[in-house]
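Ticket #4471: structure export looks truncated?
Reporter: QA, pipeline team
Priority: medium

Steps to reproduce: submit the single chain below to the structure queue and open the exported record.
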Amino acid sequence: MPVWKLATAALIALLLSGCARDDPQAALVAAAKALQENIENKDTAALLAQIHPEFRANQALDREWVRRTATLMFLRHRNVQVLALGSDSWLDPSYADKGHSEAQVALTGAEGLLPQSAGHYHVRLEWWLEDGDWLLARMAWE
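Actual output as written to the record:
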């Protein structure tokens, strides 16, 4: 799987920014923003801290895939950008501990100012609330 797909998902999450822990919607948006920032800052440890232990992407890929994909992308490109072209985040109306994000994302990687590679994805994220933190549990893209 291309590294860009992971970055796209992260961008979607980033665009849903917010900040207050006592407001679940704002905390969900903040988690999405942090995900984007962790990808753009090439911070693998912080990125993995946001990934739920039971993470699954496209029903087959796991947390270890996230680690390997992010490491490869970060080594391959000096500059990584996640651009959300449209995004939305919302709390699950049936489960207080689940949230969702959806976005159109452009992911680029470059050694200098001009992108050397780019991808456009429709990304869907499912977040689970664990001990007051929103963790990315499910991800799918097209």
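Status: closed, not a bug. The export was complete when the record was re-opened. Leaving a note from the reviewer for reference: The first helix runs from residue 3 to 14.
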